[in-house]
Every structure is written in structure tokens, then in C-alpha cells.
Amino acid sequence: MKLLVVDDSSTMRRIIKNTLSRLGYEDVFEGEDGLQGWNILNQNPDINMLITDWNMPEMNGLELVKKVRADSRFIDLPIIMVTTEGGKVEVVTALKAGVNNYIVKPFTPQVLKEKLSAVLGVAL
């Protein structure tokens, strides 16, 4: 399974990648902003999941989610948003834009595991 992690923080990308690796996911692409994430997704349309931050330069995560959902190739791509934006309005906005699940930073590896499991519909 191929996953794409998009976050402008290299530390956060590393934390997510390490957690994914412990869960057995080794095929992980990284992008440091929404624009780079979008380009990686277009070059690798067989990516199976997108994990994105909200607040990033160039193209933010919400813009990325909307762009992904507007493209018929990625209409069913599972998306998890990982962000510091934890207010009810932000969560509803992200869900309406098309994210499948939402994680508020800071989070534990267990929370990421649970959200991945819920989105993928498999026990991890």
C-alpha cells in the first residue's frame, strides 16, 4: 500500500512515517506543501491514502483536499487530515471538503493507528 504524507514540518512527516513504518507501511511518499503533494499524487496515481496537514505554504491542506476530491481519479482516495486546527468549525469544514477522518495535533501513534484502521476498514 502506498501512502502520501504532506506536512510542511519535516519533524511531523518523520513522526508520521515512523508510526506508519511500525504498522508495516514502508511505501510512503512525502510532500512539504499541498502543491508538492498534488504533484506527487499526479505522478503516482496509484497512491492508496493521503495524510495531510491543514496549514502549509503554497497550497494548504484544505485546498489540496478540494483539488483531490474534484479529480475523478482520486474521488475515493482515503484522506486523513492531521492538524492543530481542532475547533468544531474546522472539523466540519474539513469533513465537508471530503476528508475521511481528522486528527488533532499533538497525537499519539495509537490515535494514528486507530484512525487509519477506521478509514481503511481493517484491523491494524
UniProtKB/TrEMBL annotation:
GO process terms (BP): archaeal or bacterial-type flagellum-dependent cell motility; chemotaxis; phosphorelay signal transduction system
Cofactor names: Mg(2+)
Entry keyword set: Chemotaxis, Flagellar rotation, Phosphoprotein
InterPro entries registered for this protein in UniProt: Bact_response_regulator (IPR050595), CheY-like_superfamily (IPR011006), Sig_transdc_resp-reg_receiver (IPR001789)
Domain of life: Bacteria
Entry-annotated residues carrying 4-aspartylphosphate: D53
Residue ranges constituting the Response regulatory domain according to the UniProt record: 2-120
Protein name: Response regulator receiver protein
